[in-house]
Amino acid sequence: MLNRLTRRAGAWLAAMAGLSGAPALAQGDFYRGKSVHVVVSYAPGGGYDLAARVLSRHIGRHIPGQPNVVVQNMPGAGSRVAAGYLQNIAPQDGTVLGIFSQYLQFAQLMDPDKSFDPAKFQSVGNLGQGGANVIGAMSRTGIAKIEDLYQKTLIVGSTGPQTNTEYYPSALTNLFGLKFKVVAGYIGVPDITLAMERRELDGFSSSDWPGIKRARPEWLASGELRTILQIGSAREPELPDVPLMIDLARNAEERQILELVSSGVDIGRPFFAGPGVPAERIAVLRKAFDDMLLDPEFHEDVKKSAMAISPMSGAKLHDIIQRTMNASPEIVAKTRAAMVLPK
Hints:
D-Maltodextrin-Binding Protein, domain 2
């Protein structure tokens, strides 16, 4: 899987190589001697944190002036704490970047937060997560496929009401009558997997497939964990018999709802600058991101970290986010109704 994703990244990088000779903008004097902070909206140990730390070890070499790059964890409220910080408190000069939930834009459609506007964040680039999100159940539950949840209840953990750990079970419960019990109060997926080990939980309602392979390969090898549903636009080659969420749709309207619910997977691991950062500095940061993706040292670090990446330019990330934010008001309203988690 890692080799396949590395080849995919390599193809993208080959396409970007023609841009790497563009003249560097004269921003070296600004960044020289400064530090760039990468604010991670999750606790240490998860996929977002790993993406930020790998990026922080390499992107500074490609920013004119070669600033020091520091990671700062700021979890809370499904990325809204960190998003509010980036828009309202952080300096708007290109010295602070943020990596937020892939579902931040979707969350804003479902439950608008007036303290910030994710549509105004300026995309720098996206490392992607290199695969689908998945729902999994421990084999001790007797749950082997998604249809089993018509009869059995899967107890899962939530990292917050504006996250895919609640969005997915809400949609599946409201649209199809599947049975979930969602337990709130977990900081991140690492805490949820520990709770599964302690038998506090019976499974998870969202984890990226590369992440669960990296974190608990022994569960997959032994069959202790069963993957029962995928969320994304395409099935994982390693999971050909596990259905996608969109495959459950019984009509066109349900498919549109489930496509919107699944939209965050394509956003992956996005990096943003604040809305007030000057355009010329955004251009510098985007070029540094693209140049980092051509760096052999970066790719060696990706392999050592057992990451799977599917990189995307800042411009393409911007387009995907705009498509999400411009979804049909009728579909948004019906999706919002499906996001109310039953008591």
